């Protein structure tokens, strides 16, 4: 809802919009992308497109709000995996031991504790080329760290 929030400082909205536009999922949502571009860029073309899209974005947001309300009211939940009923009878230590045994049995092909099927199909081929690729990275100089700073600034601005 931040797009429609006029209480946020324009610089804050611009910073958030620019960051969100880095994500592929945002780029695929046309209304969202156009709306964010109108906030992020000081360009008449983007501003006009965003202004034209705003009523549609507002309606779409309201539809999603109603969907959320409907889902909450009728307690609609996503499909859950079926749990082994015997697990409910176990205390914490037994459950922990069972988890350790299951993990060991299902991840025997690798030292990382990742299920064999997933490891062998998705990770194993890329492991050598990825070795040490983050060794020179600093966690305090990353987009995610900047995201945290944006959230903290947003909370400060809202008086939280």
Automatic annotation (TrEMBL):
One Pfam family here: DltD
* Leader sequence segment: none
Organism superkingdom? Bacteria
- Which protein, by its recorded name, is this? D-alanyl-lipoteichoic acid biosynthesis protein DltD
């Amino acid at each position: 809802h931040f797009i429609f929030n006029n209480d946020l400082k324009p610089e804050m909205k611009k910073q958030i919009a620019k960051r969100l536009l880095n994500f592929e999922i945002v780029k695929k949502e046309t209304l969202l992308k156009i709306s964010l571009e109108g906030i992020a860029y000081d360009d008449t073309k983007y501003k006009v497109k965003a202004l034209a899209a705003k009523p549609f974005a507002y309606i779409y947001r309201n539809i999603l709000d109603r969907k959320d309300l409907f889902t909450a009211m009728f307690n609609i939940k996503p499909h859950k995996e079926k749990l082994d009923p015997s697990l409910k009878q176990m205390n914490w230590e037994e459950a922990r031991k069972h988890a350790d045994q299951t993990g060991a049995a299902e991840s025997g092909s690798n030292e990382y504790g990742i299920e064999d099927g997933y490891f062998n199909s998705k990770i194993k081929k890329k492991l050598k080329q990825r070795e040490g690729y983050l060794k020179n990275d600093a966690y305090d100089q990353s987009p995610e760290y900047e995201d945290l700073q944006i959230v903290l600034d947003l909370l400060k601005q809202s008086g939280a």
